[in-house]
């Protein structure tokens, strides 16, 4: 793998991976849509 050009892009990818794991496990924050939760994780 070549790596990421910036820390921000790496953080976004890792937040997306974590969101997929949260969706798979059913661990949503009540009242938040999946994209809103992703936006909070991505910062």
Name the average pLDDT: 78
Uncertain residue ranges: none
Instruction: Spell out the helices and strands N to C.
Output: HH
Number of discrete domains? 1
Report the total helices.
Answer: 2
Principal-axis shape equals elongated
Give the radius of gyration: 12 Å
How much of the sequence lies in strands comes to under 5%
The description of the largest β-sheet is:
none
As a percent range, the share of helical residues equals 55-70%
**How far apart, in Å, are the first and last alpha carbons?**
25 Å
Entry summary:
It is built from 2 helices and no strands.
What does this protein look like?
The chain starts with 6 loop residues before the first helix and ends with a helix. Helix 1 (7-25) packs antiparallel against helix 2. The mean pLDDT is 78. Helix content is 65%, strand content 0%. The protein has one domain. It is elongated, with a radius of gyration of 12 Å. By secondary structure, it is mostly helical.
